């Protein structure tokens, strides 16, 4: 009787949908580039990644941001001005923080471009 219940459990585990699902590791890895152009760079740039939904479709994209800077070069608020798609806008919003208390002397443009190598 013990053997019958063990076989039944193994059989049930073998036909469950989870056992047959594809994992993210099944997709071959592709090289990508995140290019940042601007006179100033916010400290959160290391948080940027390639948006998964854009990466699986091999889509490239870009965002234009503005960065507030004071006379001493301290970076204040960052805001997203325009993006090529919502996927990239979500990723760029990682740089947007709460307005920091800096005396704004100037606003600098910042452009982020995501691309995949073929």
From TrEMBL:
| Keywords of the record | Signal
Statement: the UniProt record of this protein carries the keyword Signal? yes
Annotated signal sequence range = 1-21
Q: Which domain of life is it from?
A: Bacteria
- Name of protein: TonB C-terminal domain-containing protein
Organism this protein belongs to: Hirschia baltica (strain ATCC 49814 / DSM 5838 / IFAM 1418)
